[in-house]
Amino acid sequence: MSALTLERPRSLKAALASLAADPSLMPIAGCTDVYVGLHFGTTPERRFLDLWGLKELRGIGVDGDALRIGALSTYTEIIQSTLVQQRVPMLVAASREVGGAQIQNRGTLGGNVANASPAGDTLPVLAAAGARIVLRSQSGTRTVPFDGFYTSYRNSIRTPDELVVAIEIPRLQGRQWWRKVGTRRAQAISKIMMAAVRGTDVRIGIGSVGPTVITATQAAAVLSGGGSIADAKAALLSEIRPIDDVRSTGEYRATVAANLLEQFWRET
Amino acid sequence: MRFTLNGKSRTVNAHPMKRLLDVLRGECGLTGTKEGCGEGECGACTVLLDGVAVDSCLVPLAHVAGKKVITIEGAAATRTGKALQNAFVEQGGAQCGICTPGMILAAAPLTSHASFDEIRTALAGNLCRCTGYPAIFRSVQSALKASKRAR
Amino acid sequence: MRRKDGDAKVTGAAKYIDDLTFPGMLYGATVRSSIPRGTITARHISLPDGYTVADHRDIPGPNYVALIDPDQPCLAVDEIRHVAEPLLLVAHADKDALLHLDTRISIETRNGTPTYDPEASDVCFKKIAIDKGDLDAGFKAADVIVDGEYRTAHQEQLYIETNGVIAVPGDGRMTVYGSMQCPYYVHRALVVLLALPPDKVRVVQTETGGGFGGKEEYPSILACHAAILARKAGRPVKMIYDRVEDLLATTKRHPSIVRHRTGLTRDGRLTAMDIDVIMDGGAYATLSAVVLSRGVIHAAGPYRCDHIRIRGRAMMTHTPPNGAFRGFGAPQTLFAIEAHIDRIAEQLQIDPVRLREQNALRPGDTTATGQQLGRDASALAVLRDAVKRSRFHQKRKAWAGTNRGIGLSLFLHGSGFTGGGEVKLASKASLELTPRGARILVASTEIGQGTRTMHAQIVADALGLPYDAIDVHEADTAFVPDSGPTVASRTCMIVGKLLERCARDMRRRLGTLTPAQYYKKHGAFTVTSQYEPPPGLQWSDETYAGDAYGSYAWGCNVVELEVDPVTFDVTPLNVTAVAEIGKAIHPMMAIGQIEGGTAQGIGYALTEEVVMKDGRMANAQLTNYIIPTPLDAAPMDVGLLERPYAHGPFGAKGVGEMPIDGPAPAVINALRHCGFDIRSIPATPERLMRARLHHGFSKAGT
User: Fold this and answer.
1) Does the beta carbon of A260 lie under 8 angstroms from any beta carbon of chain C?
2) Radius of gyration, CA atoms only, chain A
3) Among A115, C376, A20, A36, CA closest to B57
4) CB contact under 8 A, C160 and B91
5) Which of B45, B74, B103 represents a domain boundary (last residue)?
6) Whether B141 contacts B123, CB under 8 Å
7) CB contact under 8 A, C686 and A251
8) A189/C624 Cβ within 8 A
């Protein structure tokens, strides 16, 4: 414990300055992941930057045509937000299935993005929604597409001096669909999950079937182009890389991924 | 670090990253808050932080500065706390008792007209191995009914 | 009746082991093996001052955990038999100083070849044979023979409070406080290990956050560890496992392989049952012999058959020892017989209820061990009640060919220790007069099931005093007699009966006086009673024949479920549990036992999987060992039937264990109704997906 340090900046500006001075600082907010890692000794970091008190990173609002969700918005705030309910019901559905009430009260959307787990519950939604991630450092702000944000297992294009400050979700056309397949109905890490939007175009995000969340562009292209569901399933299976772990098997994940795709198509 | 614990102001000198759970059980000497897993999975360490249920094993002390914390020792002073405590005894919601403080605090924010699904959802982050849950649901339902009558 | 321990538990006042501290207390940790089998060749320890380190040379008595066989060392000398084998103990005043011990202590080993398949093991802990009638004649009389092999896996008890103790040394004495079911088991282990006279060892149960068998024998080794450290340091030592260590190192339910070969007439009458039971004991014998015993005795299920052969063996493998878990061998063998009965019904095209009705044990029938059943043989009563309550036949018909299924199981559970076990235990219970009533002195522990409340009710009723006039002493070996362990559904039927006798004796002695009047006039007195077997009860350990239990409780489960065709997730829609338990002393708590045990049984059937990798639990985290959450809870309909047992208190039999016997086979039979041929549990979605659908469901359920 005494080996740990915690910086508590009073403003976003101060936080960015700290991070610029020492990019090895690990930003933390709702702590629902970092404290698990500390408990099990799997978090190697010892120096932390606490963002929890930064009001600039809170709030859900409309910015131009996009919905802008502050990075520190908790799952509970997302669930309760009329704006999110109206515009991105699949994000509400995904947030409802994170952990239990206690985790939803503390865990944040920005944390889910920055933590970069392929099993992050909201990430397939962001993929399917064509979200943008707003990153800020002392040298400025950049807004990057969620597609391509992750580069490999638990890695992203975010540089160490940058913070995820907001997530922008464009106005979505068409029906939204979400399903998490977990080990149980609450307090579950997903075995596989899929978010999808069926408008003039089809967009599909899928989690826990590869080193990062995957945007299934080929399966989506088959369906957008009027192809058969069988072809779409085949395309999907070529896009995912499911593996065996203590929670499930690669075989199950592949079969169920294909089943979910069919269910999405049937129900929308 | 200064915060309000069960209605009384409290100052604690401890590392800001110390788990709230350890501060409550250690520095504050309130052992009613239980540790079941240390990973936010079982909910046994649930407390109310500004009226909202959180797993105290995942909350750094720094995050309670200036806030109000309610533990099971102070639950009776909440709107539904006393009714919940009584109902968990009368309706069999408490067996071994180790999940009970967390269950009661997770249920405490529920309004008296909460539906069965809302009750289950509020408790979804709390594991119990003794009851299989029906007796816990009956306890919460009975408490909410009682607290409605009381008002 | 308001439960005795209720108010302390809902206000946070109840003290569990981790809530206690003692002046000068150290924290203890266990250094364990990391390989499943091998030999220790060197130990390198480089710890600065302030640490207490102990190994097997610090044990004053013989180095084993006294239970049944003296085979499990308290601390390894050189042989390693499982990945959590305790090698060294370390204590320090600062808990954090015990983190990362692996960087300061290294153990060199020579690796051996582990065995994980109990059938490939060459070490057998126990063999049991049961023979009834003439098996050959039984098969000759058969028109049909049905074979089947059924497997069950490990199951973790998952009490929410992990194992923990505090050992306090002093003046040639040792006191151990802890979370436990059986203070006198711990007491005996300490007396042997520390080579102390029994009166120099004291064991005190603290409020215990669930046990389910997981705190039956395991706390003995933990208490020994803490005591060794405390003795060496001369200071109190607290050892509390974190969840990961608790999952990795402590006992699980024995995995099993059960093979049935069954002869029947064409119309479904059982003529011969040939049953082979294999239990995986893990690395040391612990309780395997008695788990196997209960398993084989229950292996023929609640059925009448003249010709039965049962063979059982408990084998050693290189995983942490398996041990007690609610049901104690019976859930494994009852799973097999009840899944087998539905396969027979399917093969003979007989309704599964009718097949069971035809063969169910009735009063006057004899069990596999030749025990003649009394009037409280209630198989038919529970079966008919559960079928009616659940509208089994209507749903069975309506859901055929859909993704909804309904299945049932019929079972029995012997109350109390098996065979001559109770006679050997010779349990005692005492009752002490107090100015306001009486105080119960028993070693039976309150672990959530309501021991204190139920015992106080029995005493109050037998004494004719109000419930509130009865106090219950804590389970502290310095004050309470050895009432035997709190296991085997014996706390009500056996210990409760002893207390009823104490209370009736006390009542006689009080005459017309109230406790207050008597106390004022003559002072306090204590009444003690000791177990005596009911008249006529006979048992032979040699032939495994006779009256295996004083009585049996009877149960029937009906499970209704739905399989998601997309994900193969199974949703239990409703569970009907009908139990005949003699007499429900406290109906709400009895129902609580049934609901809780049923939920554990549903978990056993569907989601609870101990993923073993190289002899180690690979999913040793609460997030990855999947027990039901409130959102997974199945709605339950519990029915209590009462057919008093003459030798139980107010007619009561056991209730705690039986509820976990039936859910798993009922789930698997409901899945069979949906078209899934499952013969092993847990039936995870991954396994369901692979199981051949012999008829896919064509339409959605109603």
Assistant:
1) yes
2) 18
3) A36
4) no
5) B74
6) no
7) yes
8) yes
What percentage of chain C has pLDDT greater than the value 70? 98
Nearest CA in chain A to B47: A102
Backbone angles phi, psi at B117, to 5 degrees: -65, -35
Q: Which of A25, A102, A106 to mutate to test the interface with B (most CBs of B within 10 A)?
A: A102
For residue C521, how far is the Cα from the chain centroid? 46
How confident is the model at residue C692, as a pLDDT? 61
C-beta separation of C685 from C567 below 8 A: yes
* Per-residue pLDDT at C127 exceeds 90: yes
Picking from B74, B100, B129, the residue at the C-terminal end of a domain is: B74
SS3 for C273-298, per residue?
EEEEEEEEEECCCCCHHHHHHHHHHC
Token pair for residue C236?
């109190």
- What CATH number should be reported for the domain holding residue B70? 3.10.20.30
**Whole domain around residue B84: which residue ranges?**
75-150
Residue A101 has its nearest CB partner, among B17, B39, B125, at B125
**Selected residues 299-318 of chain C with any CB under 8 Å from a CB in chain A:** none
Residues of C in contact with B73 (CB under 8 A): 11-12
At residue A146, the pLDDT reads 98
- Beta strand C79-80 with C38-45 is antiparallel
Give the whole-angstrom CA distance, residue B75 versus residue B100: 12
- ∠ Cα A208 A212 A217 (to 5°): 90
Beta-carbon contacts below 8 Å between B and C = 165
Read off the pTM: 0.97
SS3 C130: strand
Contacting chains of B (3 CB pairs or more, <8 Å) are A, C
Band of the pLDDT at A9, cuts 50, 70, 90? very high
Q: Return the DSSP state at C425.
A: H
Closest CA to C89 of C59, C54, C51: C54
Rounded Cα–Cα distance for residues A128 and A134 (Å): 17
Q: Which two tokens stand for residue C542?
A: 């040699």
State the pairing for strand pair C616-617/C551-563. Answer: unpaired
- Chain B residues within an 8 Å CB radius of C242: 38
Please check the confidence at residue C697 and state whether its pLDDT lies above 70: no
Chain-centroid distance, C-alpha C291: 9
| Residue that is written with structure tokens 């409901």 in the block | C670
| Cα distances (Å, whole numbers) of residue B101 to B30, B36, B44, B70 | 12, 12, 7, 11
Give one DSSP letter per residue of C480-530, joined into a string: S-----S-TT-IIIIIIHHHHHHHHHHHHHHTT--HHHHHHHH---EEEEE
Instruction: Give the C-alpha separation, A122 to A104, whole Å.
Output: 12
CATH number at residue B103: 1.10.150.120
Cβ-based neighbours of C333, under 8 Å, separated by 6 or more = C256, C258, C275, C277, C295, C296, C298, C299, C301
Go through the domains of chain C in sequence order and give each one's CATH number: 22-114+158-249 (3.30.365.10), 256-418+546-690 (3.30.365.10), 421-530 (3.30.365.10)
**Per-residue pLDDT averaged across A28-50, rounded?**
95
Cα(C489)–Cα(C482) distance, integer angstroms: 17
Q: Which residues are A162's β-sheet partners?
A: none
B84 and B130: one domain? Answer: yes
Nearest to C160 among B42, B121, B134 (CB): B42
Which residues 142-181 in chain A show a CB within 8 A of chain B? none
Q: Give tens-digit pLDDT for C634-693.
A: 999 999 999 999 999 999 999 999 999 999 999 999 999 999 999 999 999 999 998 865
**Chain C residues with CB-CB distance to B39 below 8 A:** 243, 621-623
Check whether residue B49 and residue B100 sit in a common domain. Answer: no
> How far apart, in Å, do the first and last CA atoms of chain C sit?
42
C682 preceded by a cis bond (ω within 30 of 0): yes
Q: Is residue C458 within 8 Å of C494, Cβ to Cβ?
A: no
Q: Which residues of B touch C19 (CB under 8 A)?
A: 25, 31
